[in-house]
Amino acid sequence: MSDGHGSMRIPTVPEARVDFAVIADLVPAGVKLLDVGCGDGALLEYLAASKGVDGRGVELSQKGVNDAVARGLPVIQGDADTDLVTYPDGAFDYVVLSQTLQATNHPRKVLEQMLRIGRRAVVSIPNFGHWRIRWQFFVWGRMPVTEDLPYSWYDTPNIHFCTLRDFVELTREIDVEIEKAVALDAAGRKLSFNAPWWIWNLFGEQAVFVLKRRG
Amino acid sequence: MASFETVPILAGAPATHHRQADEPTSPVARFDADRPLALDAGVMLAPWQIAYQTYGTLNAAKSNAVLVCHALTGDQHVANEHPVTGKPGWWELVVGPGKAIDTDRFFVICANVLGGCMGTTGPASLNPATGRAWGLDLPVITVADMVRSQVALIDHLGIPDLFLVAGGSMGGMQVLQWASAHPDRVFAAVPIATSACHSAQNIAFYEVGRQAVMADPDWREGRYLDFGTAPKKGLAVARMAAHITYMSEVSLHQKFGRKLQNRETLGFGFDGDFQIESYLRHQGASFVDRFDANSYLYVSRAMDYFDLASDHDGVLANAFKGTKTRFCVMSFTTDWAFPTRDSRAIVHALAAAGAPVSFAEIVTDRGHDAFLLDEPEMHAILTGFIDSAARARGI
Asked: Could you tell me the pTM of the whole model?
């Protein structure tokens, strides 16, 4: 957008959202981008200021929409599960789903819709295969509750957790190419790109994937 | 203004309509035969006039002008005491000093719509060709015609473009029409509780209202002003029927339920036992004191005819192709006259056209009329949207 964003200071990233900087690294400057589940618009604002993206958002909560609109962002109150179908094919260069896939009713359909309306999809997910989660499950035999995933099983919005390996498997099933992938450990450090998948799946607390339609 | 303070006492006399229709308590822009208004009906309307109110000051750059568009039964008195009823302006919760549409920052214009009865040319206005009120000789008016008249007003005021166009219900239709027809003259647009086309259900309710007006013997084939009468009963019924659609079932239940009006037991008659009956009768009775019956026919017809997509090969997104205007669309959960799906259709079309569009569905139990009421979430999002748009515009 040709509004005041160009001259804005780059907003500081909330400490808990180390994936913001990672996503910014993966998104080229000036692209048209849709952030699905954009919350209060912090990522969109960050991407507009740091990369000059023409950003749009979809958000379910009234509070999130109000806050994002007050930031000057175009945000539509809606649901990833039902509203992505209304966008035309190829409407965006990039469609971002940041830490939201696990909260959708139909993750596979959401992913397919993202790759229909965007040339590329950027998906960041928490890794349910992280060793701490495995440890809790193994030792206590209970659904894991961690600092980053603080909900009890009965009130969590996260109804479709997966491990990094599960996610990679899904991308194969729907025949999309993983163009890039970055895994972050608990301290938010990038894991070595050359590390094998099992290392990522054990030590990656979250990962960011850039997906592309084949053909 | 002072000379009109006695008007509420006289309210209801046909002379009041004549007075507000031709010599309103508002500034008027008059356009004579060399500046006709081209109507969708294929008629060049001349002479014609448009009555308007303004609030605040136009800045040196002329970049802070806001146009507020009123709904079916509204008028230009958006933020001042109404000259006929003495009531506060219809959107004083939104328009005023320190409000979302801040009159300390913006130059706010609100004009009576074409076909109205508060000073803009309408069926109650004097037709200079006959020396009588226009009545049904006035061509049918459309929402696009209303916007054409507003464009002429904005030109007349020397304003190059509008920072914001905002309105609810039929006001929202005008906002959409403005944004579609004049994208370069609208920086930001706020259509609230509206639709890109009037639904069959809404046409049906308005047809009931129009038939009620025309069935009133005092309507006299539309020439009642010549006879010094007014179809007050018919118009009151029209208002009562329409008013039901502006509320929600749950708000009617909460507000009135089956409560009785000034009585302990059922009256076994038709005197209006129930509070809801009394309320609707009051709504109808107070409406006819300030509104012209033929105006109701014309303005409701304009809403019926509104179908933005049909003017663009049936594809609503084409109405907004290439627009740079930023939009904030809002709907209300319990609005069944202009339900959320109508707003979503607008939002999807705007998104498909690549427009920067925000949308919020406000949770409320007050139905369609919520846009006129104290709805904190609506006011919060309005304020956020307008403030950020003003920053982007450098106001």
From this structure: 0.91
